[in-house]
Amino acid sequence: MRAALAGAMLAMLGIAGAPAQDRSAAERKLESVKRELDSVAAERRKLEGERGSASRRLREVDEQVGQSARSLRETERRMSGDAAALADLQRQRGELRARVATHKDELAKLVRAAYAQGGAAPLKVMLAQDRVADANRVLTYHRYVQRDRTRRIAVLTQELQALDAVEREVAQRRSSLESARMQQRQQLVKLEQDRRARATLVAELDSRYRDRRSREQALGRDAKGLEQLLGRLRAAAARAETQRKAAAAREARQAR
């Protein structure tokens, strides 16, 4: 069986002839196999490192994709939840506009009344009265009306400012949420593209790694077979040398 295996190995190597020639050819072949084995092993180790790094990066990107998707869902949830709040703000804005319109009408009436009475209205009333007490009451009334006008104008101004604030709040909230959603969608698209590219890279590196590992194992088996063959060839050469020396000794004894 071993002889047949040795013959097959020799045939594979293209070796024929004397044992010394067989051994020399096997040694050259073994050196070649070992050089290739070292090269393939180094390449396999390099690919193993690259595959590990690519796999870790892929896991990181997977986590980023998950986080980005969760952030997007949270933003959309907030937008959905804020829809009622935005509708309420718009309702408040409508109410304020109605109240502002009412105050504008009242203000217009007050302005027309003030214009009709003129700045000397209190004096005219006072001169038309027969008694000083009545005149004082009229003056007090007009001062009250003047203060009321001032208060209503202040209320109107405040409500106009409140209306502006509500409108800004509605616009800012809508713009902020929409901008955040757009950015998160763009980020998610980029991350998913990156994930697909890295998954492809990991698959390619894994395929190359398995190919190099398979080749390394095959070369290892070849090297082991060649070493065994060389061992048998050396043993055969040693036996042949022993037999040659014994034959030479017999011939020398017979020649005496």
TrEMBL record:
Gene3D superfamilies (UniProt xref): 6.10.250.3150
Keywords: Coiled coil, Signal
Signal peptide extent: 1-20
Top-level taxon of the source organism: Bacteria
Comp. bias (Basic and acidic residues): 41-62, 71-80
Coiled coil: 163-194, 223-250
Endoplasmic reticulum found in the keyword field: no
Residue span of region Disordered: 41-85
Protein name as catalogued: Peptidase M23
Organism name: Lysobacter daejeonensis GH1-9
